Amino acid sequence: MTPEETRLWGALRGHRLGGFKFRKQQPIGPFIADFVCQAQRLIVEVDGSQHADSEQDLRRDAFLTDKGYRILRVWNNDVTRNFSGVLAAILAALSDPHPPIAAQWAPPSP
């Protein structure tokens, strides 16, 4: 893990952020997510500038979204310079209701 990922993991592990459980370096299909809260289907990615406008990330995001995940990307420099803002953004995403997987693909009720 990068130093920024290590710092964020310190705030996410052990249900420390809002009581939510996160896993680090979680395989999902052919990809590895930095941090995942399975209960809320939220992936948190900590990225550097090499990820700006990355086509590979677009394909990865499409795959993960298709599997019912939401993706929150935070920049390394935000983890370093605005850590409380990053934590607030993650909490806001966790607080946003997310439909269960079945409901996302279920046909409308007649």
TrEMBL record:
InterPro entries: DUF559, Endonuclease_DUF559_bact, Restrct_endonuc-II-like. It comes from Sphingopyxis lindanitolerans. Residues 1-94 form the DUF559 domain. This is DNA methyltransferase. Keywords: Methyltransferase, Transferase. Pfam families: DUF559. One of its GO terms (biological process) is methylation. The keyword Transferase applies. The keyword Glycoprotein does not apply. GO terms for molecular function: methyltransferase activity.
